[in-house]
Amino acid sequence: MLRLPPFEYHEPQSIEAALALKQEAGNHGMYVAGGTDLYPNMKRRHQEPTVVISLSRIADLRQTSKGSNGGLTVGSGLTLTEVANHEVSNTHPAVARAARLVSTPLLRNTGTLGGNLCLDTRCNYYNQSYEWRKAIDFCMKKDGAICWVAPSSPRCWAVQSSDVAPVMVALDAEYVLASPAGERVVPAGRFYHDDGIDYLTKQRDEILTAVRLPAPNGWDATYWKLRRRGSFDFPVLGVAIRLDWLDGTVERATIVLGAVSSHIQRVEDAETAVIGTSLDDSAIDAAATAAFKPSKPMDNTDFGLAWRKEMTRVYVRGALRELRDRQPAGR
Asked: Residue 327 burial (CB < 10 Å; 0-12/13-18/19+)?
């Protein structure tokens, strides 16, 4: 049986109190929201804070507001179930779809929007018990000096496995971060590093407090997820696409891939292939091929590499067809 190590637990009721507790704890402290990522990691000794600061009782993290431009600000403390059933499902259905595809109902009832956006990177050699990892020698991500995915590599190749994050990057959402120094806003696309260990630009003392979603004006988006079990697993491929339409033509496109590298990978060649088109079959095929080329799944998640790479082409093609087919006639 895996057991949690001993730790000191706090439940502050304000962002300011949480920040003060983290400042006092220093590197020994960590924030926890729903705990669906941190607590299993603690049981496997991936992360070993001696002070855990819960964000679950901070009411400000559960607030939602509409901006004067029609955008929506969503608190990071909302559970994934709440996000899936929120007014977000009407204004930003791709976000609600991604939230609905995370794990199981029980975990969605506990896990939060902010927690999924800050999800630890995953790897078959890392997400194992302490005894298992010790038996093969620890990996670079925790306690070791080698990446078992690519032993000659100087970096860690653990995979970004959030479902909601790719959608946020595709939508050009913004993240609001609070720290003792004040508040700052970071575009979602700049929040993620291409490194399995140093995978966020968020500082350790910062709290992701809210997400700013753009006004739903003239664009459409979708999210497609590949996994072995349709009701449980982490993604081994996520495809998030946003298209801005003008008079039946794609004026702007953002196509991103999740779960194929350590960060959320934008595929600009695929975007170029559809911009200026009515999204006919030839444009869709060109975009799917363009996304296929840079997709390089690593041997640290489920399924075979060649098949997963080919599914990039299939999923990009399917997602683009979905967006095309639901455009009103004559738009």
From this structure: middle
What sign has the CA pseudo-torsion 137, 143, 146, 148?
Answer: positive
Total structural domains within the chain: 2
Report the CATH number at residue 208.
Answer: 3.30.465.10
Mean pLDDT of 256-284: 97
CB-based contact 113:100 (threshold 8 Å): no
* Burial call 202-232: b when 16+ CB within 10 Å, e when fewer: beebbbbbbbbbbebeebbbbbbbbbeeeee
Residue 328 above 80 pLDDT? no
pLDDT digits (tens, 9 = 90+) for 201-233: 999 999 999 999 999 999 999 999 999 998 889
Indicate the SS3 state at residue 244: strand
Per-residue model confidence (pLDDT) at position 329: 52
Distance CA(291)–CA(242), nearest Å, equals 15
In a shared domain, residues 101 and 187: yes
Show which of 168, 198, 213 is a domain's final residue.
213
Q: CA–CA separation, 147 vs 47, rounded Å?
A: 18
Q: How far apart are CA 140 and CA 159, in angstroms?
A: 14
Does the reported pTM lie above 0.70?
A: yes
Domain containing 173 equals 59-118+159-213
